[in-house]
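notes to self, project folder thing:

trying the whole complex as one job this time. last attempt i did each chain seperately and stitching them together was a nightmare. two parts in total, labels are on each line so i dont mix them up again. if this works i'll redo the older ones the same way
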Amino acid sequence: MELLVASAIGLLTSSGLYLVLRLRTFPVIMGISLLTYAVNVFLFASGRLVVGAPPILQDGVSGYTDPLPQALVLTAIVISFGMTAVVVMIALGAYLGSNNDKVDDPVSAQKIDVEEVE
Amino acid sequence: MSLFLIVALPFLGALLPGLMNAAGRQACAGVTFTISLATLVGLLTNLPAVISGELVTAQVDWLPMLGLNLTFMLDGLGFFFACLILGIGLLIIVYARFYLARDDNMGEFFTYLLLFQGAMIGIVLSNNILLLLVFWELTSLSSFLLIGYWKHLPEGRQGARMALTVTGMGGLAMIAGMMIIGQLVGSYDLSVILQNRDLIQSSPLYLPALLLILLGCFTKSAQFPFHFWLPHAMAAPTPVSAYLHSATMVKAGIFLMARMWPVLSGTPEWFMVVTTAGLITLVLGAVIGLFKHDLKALLAFSTVSHLGVITMLLGTGTSFGAMAAIFHILNHAIFKAALFMSAGIIDHETHTRDIRRLGGLRHLMPISFIITSIAALSMAGIPLLNGFLSKEMMLEETTHTVLLNSPWLVPGLAVLGSSFSAAYSFRLIGHVFLGSKRNDYPAKPHDPPAGLWLPPAFLVFLVVAIGIAPFLAEPAVRMATTSVLGGVTDIPTAHLKIWHGFGPALYMSIFAIIGGLLLLMVYRPALQIWDTIPRPEAKNIFDTLIKALVTIARGLMQSTHNGSFTRYAAIATVTIVGAGFYAWQSGVVADATHGVQTAGPVMIGGWAMLVSATFALVFLHRNRLLSLILIAIVGLMVAIGFVFFSAPDLAMTQITVEVVTILLLLLALNFLPNRTPIESTVLARTRDVFIAAIAGISTMGLSLHYLLRDSIAPSISEFHLAKSYEGGGGTNVVNVILVDFRGFDTYGEIIVLGIAALLIYALTETLLSGPVRARLLNREPDQPRAGDIHPMMMVVLTRFLMPVVLMVGFYIFLRGHNDPGGGFIAGLIVSIAVVMQYMASGFNWTSTRLRYPYHGIIGAGVLIAGLTGIGSWFVGKPFLTSDFTYVRIPPFQKFELATAALFDLGVFLAVLGAVLLSLESFSRLARRAHVPDTDYAMDIDPSRDSNPEGMQSMAKEGR
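result (full assembly):
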């Protein structure tokens, strides 16, 4: 079971990274989403895997799942929505503004001379 | 008045002039004057304590772990400087009121001036060297704003930049020096450091610390070889020059040398470095000053020269030298401020500062003539004026100073410098006011209004008063000197007096004055010789240096940062994996503490779905719509995984977030191309697969390692499990952690979420008001639209579902504290209910029924959560302490009321608002893009059949 979870995390990470290394915005966003899953599951797994334990406090039960990573991951999931939305908006704005959804800037666009700054 | 208030008053007051700009120039200047006056009065209330030798202190811990505390102290030296800063500041404010032109933004000017004043006061009152550094940097920043105040002048901007660069670099060096001192002594408190003279001076780190601190002082006080920035700062408005270069900014370096005098001075290193630098600056500044034709440049170099005098006196390390230095600080501040103001008056009335174009002004501007002459004669060192007194003390001190084994070197150079100093002072009078009247002045000169000449006149009164009755200034000088000496040596018994009898100092003084007159007589031939001597131009060297630095930096940046995001991501991944591998290699790996649990068929099935969906996503990612469906499957499987591993809250959150994320991506995909083209080479893809695979395998290894071992330290989760019910009143520990134990984190999180939503809104607004708007309006959809925009089935279903979903949301919210649920999940569920209405019935229909704007909902959420937190202050508890109780209203069962539920309501509202604002913004883009919504919620409505207009519009819509 641990092997399955670990391999799932590994697979999500590598697929996410592969997509992040693509040249267009949309696959990069997909890749970031996959990485988010991987990170969330990894954080969750840091509470170790427990099957069938009660998540709610009950009388006469001593073994519970670890609530702390769950609380952390819960907010992480919600924040990741906000992050995805912002990134998508930026990608969209860039595409609509320049009709181009490449992630790499050409070097020539960055050249600013000191004289111009003055 | 408390020292905190004295330091804070200028900073707080700095807000006022800027805000009161509309109230007029008089009001701006008046309020600034009042603030400075109040600060000065506050300072004076501490005078009795300072006179009695008491150390006035005020302390609040700021970052005690770093040794950085808000501690202030007021001793004789600090008092002396603070009085100078505030006193001359008051005169400058009056002067600036009449100096600045109608077009100048006076509120802005006085805001900068007060900021600067506050920073200076902070420097002289700090009792913590880290705090002192903070104020030190603040003076660099605020003086940058002041020097560059005339933004339209390139010289002003360049001068400001140069001043900031030089003093900022010096400040960095000083930080390092102060750190060394602090580490040596084990405390950053000045009062402790000043007690540890022997410890510091015997340490091998003394020399580096000394050099670093002196670097800071020399750059600030324009000592050789950093003197070049000061003349360039003269592009500032004259009130700024008069303030910065007489009593404040450049005296900060001097102040620090005086402040650290007890622990740093007295060693051969100190003597060698400080005296030499002072001596060179003294002579160099005086010589260059004589040959400058710009009035302010002449004064700037004379300032450099006089700062050299003070530095040299501090360098001698004797108590008499320190006393002379303090006295000269006072005298120089007074006559130099008066001279700068006079130069400003001449510039103001004749429209030129070029000495070669002036002359014969004594009849045209008699008041200015008297003021300038007295101040200049004082600078030259003429008896019965204050400059004479301290200059004679300086000359007296040089006769006892032996540098490089030569008893003649220091006195000789001091006399040489004094001669040149006298010469430029005489030149100032002679070439500007004396001589015959000319008829080619750029403007007709006349005396200025009283507001301009009164401040320098007051200073000139002081020049004469101190010059005739030096005993008036003696208590102040003696008080400051006592603090400088810090008990290391005895206070000198010498008194300030006019007549010291016939001695070497008097002869040297007479010699210097005669030398000055002779120099002025041979001025023309001397100038010709001077002009033929090649001299390095500091500004050119500085500019070349900066340009070279920029070139190097750009070369470095462009070779590593070439704008390729892909490359950065790849480098970052490889680096992180490499660092992790090194850590794993070099660390200790414990044995596994438990074995692998067996997985059932359900688990394996779920895993297989996740894996196949992920693989499919990678292989089919070029089809973007398909990849959205595939990533939704991945998300769903992750959610099911959470259910499986006993985390129902997570599963609910994951599923609801998944829904809104997919909707968002769908909305975005509406505008983006449908397919990703093949661009990278096979080689590049192989490389990416390789990098991704390595990272994946490492993560897998790390996770597996983690999962098979217990944590090495007991987790704090036990605490949360144990306290959840009795402390937080809830049985759902995850929710109690969110709204209670870690409520402050959650509070931050909802704020971040709100900011993200507002950012999206703002970006949409920007897009829609820019050139993109036209493109969106003219955009042809790349796929045929659905004939039925608002399908009746969906409209009916969603409207029917709305109350049900709202009820579910409400239920999930309420039960959150004790069962899976809570504000986050309820917020997401309710937003999905609203989004369904948008999708089914259209944007118009939904927004007209919307009563509250989403911004307001976010704000209300954050506000409710914040107020809940603040509420606990009223019962004397820390922020966000929660409380709960159980109540029973007869027909119902006993139920719980917790303040945490109120906080959760804030979370709920913030999440709801944020999600809806984001989605709404996206759909606003879409609305611009194609045909507007119909007026009707349903495309087919039997009751509308009789209405021919409705039929027509429908026919159009249907297409």
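what i see at first glance: Chain B touches chain A through 123 residues (CB under 8 Å).
need to look closer tmrw
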